[in-house]
Each structure stands twice: as structure tokens, then as C-alpha cells.
Amino acid sequence: xxxxxxxxxxxxxYDAELRIxxxxxxxxxxxxxxxxxxxxxxxxxxxxxxxxLENAEALNDVGILFIGDIKVTDAVRAKLDDWVRSGGVxxxxxxxxxxGLFGNVCxxxxxxxxxxxxISGYFSLKSDELxxxxxxxxxxxxxxxxxxxxxxxxxxxxxxLARFYDTDGTDTGYAAVTGRDYHSGxxxxxxxxxxxxxxxxxxxxxxxxxxxxxxxxxxGDMIAIGDNEREMLYADEILFLIQNMIAQKxxxxxxxxxxxxxQIPDVLFYWGGDDEAAGGTQLWASNWMKxxxxxxxxxxxxxxNGEFTVSPEEAEAIRANGHxxxxxxxxINNFDPLEFTEEDxxxxxxxxxxxxxxxxICTVNHWCRWTGWADTAKWMRAxxxxxxxxxxxxxxxxxxxxxxxxxxxxxxxxxxxxxxxxGENKKIDFLEEPITAYETGYSSSDVTDFNALHKAxxxxxxxHLVMNMxxxxxxxxxxxxxxxxxxxxxRYMESKDIVVVxxxxxxxxxxxxxxxxxxxxxxxxxxxxxxGISFTACCEYDGGMIVKLPVRSGDLVAPPICDGQRADHxxxxxxxxxxxxxxxxxxxxxxxxxx
Length: 595
Prior knowledge:
There is one protein chain. This protein is α/β, with parallel strands linked by helices. Strands 14, 15, 16, 17, 18, 19, 20, 21, 22, 23 and 24 form an eleven-stranded mixed β-sheet that branches. The protein has a nine-stranded mixed β-sheet with strand order 3-2-4-5-12-11-10-7-8, with helices on both faces. A six-stranded antiparallel β-sheet has the order 1-25-26-32-28-29. Strand 14, helix 7 (282-291) and strand 15 (297-301) form a beta-alpha-beta unit.
């Protein structure tokens, strides 16, 4: 592997003292979520303490830099200006003191009223190369949502990429996002706190009351988007835009979906459902799903008498089918309709282990019960769990919103929980797998609705999503229309030539966990007679991973090389950019791309 060239690093400026100060004031330090933003993007950005900028060489190998609410001195401002002029890509989140560099003029601050979880404004993407094909084709009139203070920005030497609207939909005349080509570099600016906005969308509003009035504390009480359209990827569209900004450099990222038989998949569907303590239906449903060649995940629940209706022998037969068994927490029967406790969680987890002899991985809460904010996630992690699938897809009521597609937590992708200020905003090693496509394609009256099913599949394939396909085993057993919907899903995917990875919820957790621990290091740009990029990829997942990096049309002069051998790859256009996808096997490998 060639060693000569310029190193390329992506980084984010960080000041730990700002987090400490915010937590001491009883506030969340929202910029902490820059770490989860990078996680979802598959971007291995490194943290740069703001004090390190006093070192003249601190940014020498940095090609892309995120900056948030960091205090900027005159010396830092000058250094960043020189760095961008020389080719750096700077992405700012409501940063102050750098308006000139970003090419903007700020003439006001629109403060978020109410709480940190209240909508403070909207924004709409404008037509530009950077915004191409990002915004929802299902609901093009729906604006995206902001949760933070907003700086009233007027583009001066920049281009407006998105317009800011007030909470009543009034055009403020201000830009919400801007971009500036500055000599050899680029400066992109969000006039709002992106980490706060995405964090609130993902993790929702802390449950302190029954906000939707259904009589229970459920994840529906956490939904922050209000009455806005539920079928919108509010958080993901921001990530897609940031991804296009990053694409100004050939920065490798880890794709959200693992490879399939040497192919680059379009979408990942993960299949699961709750057994509802309906004895005699669970193994039957598993056998049927096996016949269809599908994975399946069954959450097993105790009934009102505290009994599991799946025997250990049935559970083993389900697992022998290649399917997954896990725990369906029941906080409905004989429980307070509002708060439950850590002891309630621990008792049910231990009962499941005593019954079946193995620990739960991804669980679901009956009726999507929840309490607090990150508390429930911490309790389930302490009880041995790894992931949850209770963040519902739709506002409540109705009690059971079937045959609906929804992304009311802003995303289709898994995300890790982060603690509140009392827990120092630390990352919790516990994954949320949000519900998205729920009993889609039919109704309980055994009438099929394939249009709704096709819509979910088309959207997932278009945006390359990680999509939850939620079907209860009792419904697979009892409703022919449910089975017809699943069969139609498979037929439709095949007819559209969609390359699909199918998983269960536990298998999705394993993939996302190992993706999180996989690395891309030593990224080097080579110039001269043989231009290109090289890097070291360390894949923790036994099925391999896919590394994606932006390319320009016609730039690839030879197939990418992995450990001296031609690598399986594909060039595909996504969101107006061309991307090279390279399959990387498990282990550590040296990769070269000639351009």
C-alpha cells in the first residue's frame, strides 16, 4: 500500500467544560449528540479539544470539521479562515463568531419558547445540487422541524440552501442553511442547533404526564413533532444533507446496510412481532415465516396471570427455525397505568431467563409503555437487554394504529440512547429500533391494502432505509390477509429488482453494534502519477460491511483493491451525488481506490 500522500480526517471541535457547565445548571448539553450523528452516518470522526487549536498543526490532517457552540477567539477565527481557504470543509451548527467566514450576516436571535422540546420553527430545502432528491416525495409541502434557538441569518457571500419559517408557517426571510464556496474550501452553516434538533426528534419528550390523554404513559407521549406529517424522515433528511456536504471530500463512511452475497443492498427490512400471550400461534407463525424464507423475531409475553404461553420446547423449535425469541415486557396487567419501576423491569427479565435459559436481546413493551426519558432504557440495559422496539410509528390514540407507515421519531435508522443531564449526557449502550411499518398491507377485517405496502417498500428502497416490518404472530396465524400482505411484499420486492437484506430484531442489533465498533483509519489522499485514496478498514461483523465514498463521474480509473485483490463494488447515485460502494470482509484490510 502506498504511504505517501495527505491524510484525511473528519473531526468535531469539543469543549468538555461546556457540557459540565450545562449539566451543573440542570440542562442537557445538546452538542453531545454530535457523536450519535456521526454514528448514524457511519462516519469515524475524531474529537478535537478546542484548546488544541492553539497548536499550529492541529488541523493539518483534518479535511472536514464540525463546530457547534464553541467560544471562538480571534486567533481561532483566523486559523479556521485560513484552513477553509486552503481546502477545508467546515460545517457549523448555530456557531457564533464565524458569520464572516460562513458568508452570512446575523441580525437577530429567535429564542425557543417553552421548553427545549417545543418546536421553534420550520425550514424548507431549496433547489440546489446539495439538496437534490433529499426531501420527501410523499409530502413535498411538509417543512422540516427545528428544536432550538435560531439565528436570523442573511446570506451575504453565501448561497441559501434552506429557508427558515416561523412556527405558524410564516416566511421569515431568513436562511436556515447556507453554503459558501470559499477559495479552495467550503463553509456550510445551519442557523439552528442540529444536534439538539435530531436528539429531540429521536428520543422525544420526557414523559412527565399523559400528554395524549389515553390513560397510560406510552412512547406516544414522547412524540415531539406534534400534528405534523408522520411519514416524514425529519431527522434523516438533515443527515442526508450533511452527508452531501461531507461529500466535498472523498471521506469513506460505513454504509447502514451490510452486504448480501457480494451485492450492494438497497434496503434492510427487519421482521418481528409480539406474541400477545396467544398460545398456539407463535410456533405456527414461525413455521410459516420459515416457509417464506424470512427471518422472524417473536417477543414472548406473560399473560394477566403472570404465565408465559410459549413452552420452552416451543421456544427451542422457534429458534431451530433460525428465528429469534425475546421478551415482551407487560406493564399493562396489574400495573400502574403511568409509571413503572426498575424492579418491575428486572423481575420480568429474570422470569424470562428462568423460563427459557437465555437472555433477551431486543424487547418490546406491551402497548409501547414507557416512563421518563432515558430511564427505561437504562433499566432494560441493566436487566441484560441490548435494544428496544417500542418507539411507536404513529400518534396515539388510536390504541393500535395498524396498516400505517410512520417515522414520528424522525428516523428509520436505529439510534443509541443518551442520558439526561443528571447522567452527564453519557451514551447508553442500548439501541432503539423504531417501529415504522406496522401491520402494513391489510386491515383486521381481512381486507388487503397493497398500495400502502408498496408505498412503504418503495420509500425504503428509494432512501436505502433500515425498515421495521412489524407483524404479530397471532395475526399471521389468524388473518389470511396478513399472510397475503407478507407474500405480496416479497413478490413486489422481487418484481422491482430490489436487493434486500432481511433480518430479525436481534440480528439487527448485532449488525449495528458491530458496525459501531468497526473502524476506518489512515485515510490518505494520493496525488501525482497515480491519484486516489487509500485507507485501512477494520470490520467487526462476520458478514462484512460496505464502505461508501463520494466519487465524480468518470473518476474511477480501475476497480477498487482490497488487500491486493479486486473488491466487489458498485457506483450508485444517491441524493444527487455519485458514491462508490466497496464490500469489505470481516477483519482488517488495506483498501486502495485509483481516481
